């Protein structure tokens, strides 16, 4: 029956569902329902998702100048130092 579901069939008052469909599209929403329907699904925010990639980029671009890297990535020199020195 899920194959026949349209946006007009979505329950009234479930604004989050409509918002998700508008962002990812109906086909992706149906796949999400098949995968995780009925469960509580946590979706992390963007900053926590990209933190690992950002830290890798900081370590790769680090040339000894903490201040330059801190300005480039918009974080403190202490944060750069912690990221660079973290093993």
Q: What fraction of the residues are assigned to beta strands by DSSP?
A: under 5%
Largest sheet: none
Alpha carbon gyration radius: 21 Å
Helix amount: 55-70%
Question: Could you say how many structural domains there are in total?
Answer: 2
- Structural class determined from secondary elements: mainly alpha
Number of helical elements:
5
Shape: rod-shaped
| CA-CA gap between termini | 51 Å
**What do the pLDDT scores average to?**
91
Order of helices and strands: HHHHH
Number of strands: 0
Low-pLDDT residue intervals, each spanning 5 or more residues:
none
Descriptive notes:
This protein folds into two domains: 2-36, no CATH class; 46-85, no CATH class. It is built from five helices and no strands. The longest helix is centred in the middle third of the chain and has 16 residues, at 46-61. It is 62% helix and 0% strand. Helix 4 (66-73) crosses helix 5 (77-85). With 87 residues, it is an all-alpha fold. The radius of gyration is 21 Å and the shape is rod-shaped. The model has no long low-confidence stretch (mean pLDDT 91).
Write the layout of secondary structure elements.
Layout: H1 15-24, H2 26-36, H3 46-61, H4 66-73, H5 77-85
Helix pairs in contact: 1-2, 4-5
